[in-house]
Specification:
363 residues, alpha+beta
Length: 363
């Protein structure tokens, strides 16, 4: 029964994130008058459909994606085809200004971010308070700790922290620094850049595992006055939800940058890995499951912003190139670019799935 429950929750999670993303495209397209034949959640055969004024709203069999079939959209071979012969040019993607097309392409990413902000804001509201903190300035160093035997000094401001796995962050506050260190995988030192009396220094410190805290620490402390528990209400929760979402975006972007440097490839997760994460989150409680929806929504937004033509960010990049050269790319060039991108994505998907299954069997 628990397996069935986890499968259902996995499908719900993917459906919420995909539907919100595609709904962003749909709203933007309709705002600019582009004809949308179909808005679909899932791929494959139709399970349910309802015809609106001009758009058919569908749920398809396989919850692995979704799409909006827009007139003039030639980039997605899986989408429903539309005969544009009898449509006025201004009702197609090909007939509207490039800046409008860019907004339509980015609207899905925007909606993913909005979903995360709403979820985090409501969770913060439910908690009743939000922890804010000042800049990450070291106020104390525990005697005998790794930091004690390093070059770190009280008063140092941590401006950058990086790990050997490629993850790095420029913490805006001490709470961001503490949250980031929970992503440490236990390998290599923490590479710190600190500001001291207006000068910057690079200091490496190898952390030690603390059984009481159940995490790796280097033995630095921050002043209690740096922490402020802000009372949250329905009016200010959105501000803190936005702030926390921005932090998660920065953390997610740092993770992707580390992948391009050749780090963390084994930490990539596909549907199998996400299913396992959903199962684990549900075991901790519903709050963790809801947080997972927000976090994956941000991940989907960041991935779609990547400049690969098969993603929204890549399609925007092609539009910008066309605007610069003042002519559209040839159909042959577009097909080659899209095919190469799809091939790379397929190879990555196969690798990720193999990696997920290997972890599952090994675990």
């Amino acid at each position: 029964m628990s397996i069935l429950k986890n499968i259902v929750l996995f499908i719900i999670l993917l459906s919420i994130i995909v539907s919100i993303h595609e709904f962003g495209h749909l709203l933007a397209a309709k705002f600019f008058g582009v004809y949308c034949k179909e808005y679909s959640i899932g791929m494959g055969p139709k399970l349910f459909s309802k015809k609106g004024k001009e758009t058919e709203y569908c749920i398809r069999a396989f919850p692995v994606g979704g799409f909006v079939a827009m007139a003039g959209d030639t980039d997605n071979s899986l989408e429903t085809k539309i005969d544009v012969t009898d449509l006025p040019p201004e009702r197609t993607l090909l007939g509207i200004a490039k800046w409008k097309k860019i907004i339509i392409m980015l609207a899905g990413i925007f909606m993913n971010m909005i979903l995360a902000i709403v979820i985090y804001s409501l969770l913060i509201l439910a908690n009743g308070s939000y922890v804010t903190s000042s800049k990450p300035q070291i106020s104390s160093i525990r005697e005998g700790s790794p930091a004690y035997y390093s070059e770190l000094k009280e008063g140092d401001i941590v401006t950058t922290i990086a790990f050997d796995n490629g993850l790095s962050l420029n913490p805006a506050s001490y709470s961001e620094l503490i949250t980031f260190t929970s992503a440490y995988d236990g390998n290599g030192p923490w590479h710190l850049k600190v500001e001291r009396d207006g000068e910057h220094m690079n200091i490496d410190v190898l952390p030690e595992y603390d059984e009481t805290e159940d995490r790796y620490l280097i033995g630095i402390g921050f002043s209690d006055v740096a922490i402020d528990y802000v009372k949250v209400n329905i009016f200010n929760c959105w501000k803190y939800g936005f702030e926390y979402s921005v932090f998660i975006v920065r953390l997610t972007w740092s993770s992707f940058l580390s992948l391009f440097k050749g780090h963390n490839l084994n930490n990539l997760s596909g549907p199998v890995g996400i299913y396992n994460t959903v199962s684990e989150a549900v075991s901790y409680g519903w709050e963790y499951y809801i947080q997972l929806i927000a976090m994956i929504s941000i991940n989907v937004g960041v991935v779609n912003a990547l400049p690969l033509p098969i993603f929204d960010g890549g399609r925007v990049l092609l539009l910008i190139i066309e605007a610069i050269i003042r002519k559209p790319l040839s159909e042959k060039a577009q097909n080659i670019i899209m095919s190469l991108s799809a091939a790379l994505l397929l190879l990555l998907f196969v690798y990720i799935t193999y990696n997920d299954i290997s972890k599952l069997i090994g675990g």
